[in-house]
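User: Can you help me understand a structure? I only have the sequence.
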Amino acid sequence: MALEEIKTLLVGNPIMAAPDIGEPMLLYISATNQVVSAVLVVERESEGHKFQVQKLVYYVSEVLTPCKSRYLHYQKIAYTVFMACQKLRHYFQECSIIVASEVPLNYIINNRDAIGRIAKWVIELLPFEITYKPRQAIKSQVLADYIAEWTEAELPREYSAYSHWTMYFDGSKMLAGLGAGVILISRTGDTVRYVLQIMYTDSNNAAEYEALLHDLRMATSMGIQRLEVRGDSNLEISQVNGEFDAKDPKMAAYRNAVLRISARFEGLEFHHVARDSNQAADVLARMGAKRDPVPKNTFLERLFKPSVVWQDDVTGAPSDEPAHNASPKNEQDDQVISGSALEETPSAHEVMALIAPWTEPLLAYLTQHQLPKDKTEAQRIVHGSKVYKVHEGEHYKKSTTGVLQRCISEEEGRKLLVEIHAGMGVHHATV
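Assistant: Let's start by predicting it. Here is the structure, written out as tokens:
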């Protein structure tokens, strides 16, 4: 009997149903990394079935652009409803739509605090009769998932080049001083540029190593797990890869410091590239050596002492050249491990903010009632401070519904954008 039913299903082709005017329809949605899909069905009585049977009305899908593929998952789900409304508008105009999903779309779309693209989609969906209910059974959800997964499987793997982060580094020694440049490229092609001004006298190889160490420290602080390092210095790359021996105590200390930090990554490779392929990092390194002003969207740091401590083979005494360094030394800096690097010393770095925090005038007024002498500027600060609040030492902006939104600096905002575009971390909507 079961075999006969299977034969009947195989022989008879499935036929799409034509909905009646005003007949309620269900919308099943699905989203993957690069594809969103939606399936529209109706539920009708069928002979031989105790419960109503879902019949397919139409299905649509869309391959996301690189920008849309970086949406958060719940944003992709909301966008799927908007996409289905745009492509199947005639069904949405004549019938009531019930969206069945595991995601709490009713709270997301009908949220009064919705801003940005979510708010735009909400406005577009307002004219239609759409209700959002939790999905109780799989049913036609299988078809929506199949369309999205099958479409994504058929796409060419054009984003494989960004499966890991890439870093270019270079050092420079000039008459004005030492400098280093670092360029960090995310999996999505976004770049972060750093200029390192080395404020003491040392060799060009040491500057190259300082650039390498600086980037590895920055990558670990950002939570990067897979990184490809590219540099035009054959000495540093070969020493780290074990192809060259590091006989000089200083170079051995730098190499061991790199190897120690390398253990924190899941995947890390060092590759030597031609100088022509490393021009961008070389420009930043020369900029740091000549103490030139850094361009916009480029971070600047100053290094006042070496990042490692080594032991001199001749005197047997510890060395962290040069001796005339005016920076204070910590007790931790006096510890020496022969031929190996200590942990990096955070006190050796001074981060230079390129732009002063925009919250300083507001904080000065809210906490100390200080205003600038310019009357126009003072009136602007007093008027704007009405929507800001200082709570437990943090600066917040009050939304129209009373939700406190934390204010951040421009530098912190850049770091958050890098993490978001890289697909790292969680949603930062409360920031």
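Now, to help you interpret it: The longest strand covers residues 53-63. The longest helix spans residues 204-221. Let me know which part you'd like to focus on.
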